[in-house]
Amino acid sequence: MTDLSLVVEDRTFVVHQSVLFARCPKFYKSHVKSHNEVKVEGVKSFVFPLLLEFLYTDRVGVSKDIASELEKVAKLFELPRLEAICKQKSSFTKVPPPSFSNDMIRLLESGELADIEFRVEGKSIKAHKVIISFDLSKVYLGCSM
Prior knowledge:
Helices cover about 45% and strands about 15% of the residues. By secondary structure, it is of the alpha+beta class.
């Protein structure tokens, strides 16, 4: 269940706060705080779905003609891997390794924004429904299987 609306120009995108917090915590802390709807300035609405694709999968298919626009968004959200992917479209910039799995682990370990709790042998384990429900076959975790 999504729990945050991001308004970009004339479009509204619904997202999971836990994913936004895990993937771009500085943006989350400075813009979202306790709001359920946040207006995102300085971003074109046609680029925003690409940002969401990256946030949720750690991958993005970006064409050369919009790479510079997506790069601006990557800077705003403080996403160096996405920024490097965009730069790679126009140069030979090295792209950092995927960070999705590390971001999700950090989120789970912090317990921030947990919306479900399991009790195992008297021990409390906080989790996030969105992470439990992810189809991991669509996420590149940076490891070979």
